[in-house]
Design goal:
This protein has 264 residues and is of the alpha/beta class. It contains eleven helices and nine strands. It has two domains: 184 residues, Vaccinia Virus protein VP39 (Rossmann fold); 61 residues, rRNA adenine dimethylase, C-terminal domain (Helicase, Ruva Protein, domain 3, Orthogonal Bundle), CATH 1.10.8.100. The chain has a seven-stranded mixed β-sheet with strand order 4-3-2-5-6-9-7, sandwiched between helices. Strands 1-8 form a two-stranded antiparallel sheet. Helix 1 crosses helix 3 and helix 9 crosses helix 11. The longest helix is centred in the C-terminal third of the chain and has 15 residues.
Length: 264
């Protein structure tokens, strides 16, 4: 059967057609899988498309809303799921406080072309989104969940892992989509960790992480040269390392040290 909604290349749409995989993705935030405090939270689905994942979310949760940019999908969803509030908008431009004033769960088969930006938006709303899961391009999913020492560990890994426990759950092959993407997909779950405070100047932390990985093949002594105060000790062992060798706590300590020396 042909899809009721035409996939638009400009929106990065690849519609999942395998209901078993949709069930597995929905299960990543099923109430039974979550701590009691989060199990009954409302759900926001990003980019429902033809509603394959939506079917199971509506079964599992008392309150579900969806945000969808594609007008054709919005019309289709209104017919098939009249009980589902669909917000026709660009998720990246949406004020999430207008959707749910309190905490909520975030899930989606995220458009590959904006998946990184979606997770940066998650960070900006981390106090209100305790659990986020879904499917995205496998390489990005692996990067988010990679640990220090991995070749794919990078900016998104560090910034997200500061606030979330990141799990890579399973891989999805190309042949269960219409049209099939040219890459494999990965399903991940991010669960808010117990950190309540950055433990450093957060702006400095982000600057240090982004600057270090901007020249990831260089040692920190060289990649961070533009950030270091004149009297900063560049001979200490950490400065001889490359960014992928540092964990979140290492970056916090380094940010504090740079800030402290800068302030004299």
């Amino acid at each position: 059967m042909s899809n009721p909604v035409r996939a638009k290349k400009a929106l990065g749409q690849h519609f999942l057609t395998d209901m078993n995989i949709a069930r597995r993705i929905a299960d990543t935030i099923a109430p039974a899988q979550l701590p009691e405090a989060w199990a009954q939270l409302p759900v926001l689905e990003v980019g429902p498309g033809t509603g394959v994942l939506t079917t199971f979310l509506l079964e599992d949760h008392n309150e579900v809303k969806a945000v969808e940019l594609d007008a054709e999908s919005v019309v289709y969803l209104a017919k098939v799921y009249p009980q589902l509030p669909v917000i026709e908008a660009d998720f990246l431009k949406l004020d999430l406080a207008d959707v749910y004033p309190g905490e909520f769960l975030l899930i989606g088969n995220y458009p590959y072309n904006i998946s990184s930006q979606i997770f940066f938006k998650l960070l900006d709303n981390r106090e209100r989104i305790p659990v986020c899961s879904g499917m995205l391009q496998r390489e990005v999913a692996q990067r988010i969940c990679a640990g220090p020492g991995s070749k794919v560990y990078g900016i998104l890994s560090v910034l997200l892992q500061m606030w979330y426990d990141c799990e890579y759950l399973f891989t999805v092959d190309e042949n269960v989509f219409s049209p099939p993407p040219k890459v494999k997909s990965g399903v991940i779950r991010l669960t808010r960790n117990s950190r309540t405070d950055a433990g450093c100047d957060e702006r400095m932390f982000k600057t240090v992480v982004k600057t270090a990985f901007g020249m990831r093949r260089k040692t920190l002594r060289n990649s961070l040269a533009s950030l270091l105060p004149p009297d900063f000790d560049k001979t200490q062992p950490v400065m001889g390392k490359r960014p992928e060798q540092l964990g979140v706590e290492d970056f916090i300590a380094l940010s504090n040290q740079i800030k402290s020396v800068s302030m004299g």
